[in-house]
Design a protein that fits this description.
With 95 residues, the chain is α/β, with parallel strands linked by helices. It has one domain: Oxidized Rhodanese, domain 1, CATH 3.40.250.10. The chain is built from 5 helices and 4 strands, in the order αβαβαβαβα. Strands 2-1-3-4 form a 4-stranded parallel sheet. The chain starts with a helix and ends with a helix. The relative contact order is 0.24.
Amino acid sequence: MNVQELIAQGKGTVVDVRSHLEFSGGSVAGSVNIPLDQISNKMEDLRSLEAPLILVCASGNRSGMAEGYLRENGIECVNGGSWLNVNYFMSLSEA
């Protein structure tokens, strides 16, 4: 299932891996902020979230790195790319 379908069906949790400062400048409503450099220390928190995790950042690069690490550790996730794209998909599902 792709990111747009997951969002349309209300599945998963959006996890923003940007810094706290970037996140505070704008984010997907209801998303959780766990910066990329803190992922390894937050594994229990990540495992407690509704899967699949939809990982976002500014461009898709950091969320792609997070996806690789989390998959290696058995967490179901997808790279959602830019938070702006996911925000757009969320607005479509609310319409």
